[in-house]
Amino acid sequence: MHPEHAKAELSALIRMNGTLTIIRHQLGLDVVTENPAIARRIYSLIKQVYHQEATLSVRRKMKLKKNNQYVVRLVQGVQPMLQDMDILAATGLTINTSISDAIMSEPQRMRSYLRGAFLAGGSVNNPETSSYHLEIYSLYEDHNADILTMMNHFHLNARAVQRRSGFIAYLKEAEKNCRFSQRYWCYECHVEV
Question: Are 133 and 84 in the same domain?
Fold first, then answer.
């Protein structure tokens, strides 16, 4: 994978699932997922793009569903990495919630970002129901608007809805869901449209 495309995918994964921490008087980053394959992907993208060694740990959630949570932790070089991805402003600790122009202006980077966004906050419900849809959840309205813009750049007819705790970009049509899946993951789509 081209380094700029890997960086775009990693940017989505961190922006959507990352948490900043202070560890021993320096900035740290935890990226949390319930999927071990996604945790390995985050770990390998950090190593590939930024040549940083992250740690990978597992913890058990204690609320409701007691699933495992996989934590990719980085304790060195966090601030320059996040500034390079335009997640942190160049000065200070201001978080940019919108997607960088470098990603929004290049179709392959948009595809890579959408792949990361779906891995971080996406879901698809049962294709055999009448409410079949694909959705990507975001905390921030401007981030959700950027995801919507990218999806519609590829003529997917995406829409947005606000929920109590965030925003959702979604695809309702089965054919569009299949196109999204095929374009970003090369899966075969077995839904009759």
Answer: no
Distance, in Å, from the CA atom of 25 to the CA atom of 168, rounded to the nearest integer, reads: 36
The pLDDT value given to residue 191: 40
What is the span of the domain harbouring residue 175?
A: 102-185
Give pLDDT, residue 187. 43
Beta bridge partners of 60: 68
Last residue of a domain, one of 96, 120, 144: 96
Cα–Cα distances in angstroms (integers) from residue 11 to residues 6, 52, 59, 187, in the given order: 8, 15, 24, 23
What lies within 8 Å, CB to CB, of 135 at 6+ separation is 122, 123, 124, 168, 169, 170, 171
Q: Which of 123, 121, 120, 141 is nearest to 132 (CA)?
A: 123
Is the same domain home to 92 and 12?
A: yes
Task: Count the domains in the chain.
Answer: 2
Structure tokens at 10: 């990693």
* β-bridge mates for residue 86, sequence order: none
Residue with tokens 């965030």: 166
Q: Is 166 in the same domain as 107?
A: yes
pTM to 2 decimal places: 0.87
Mean pLDDT value across residues 144-159: 94
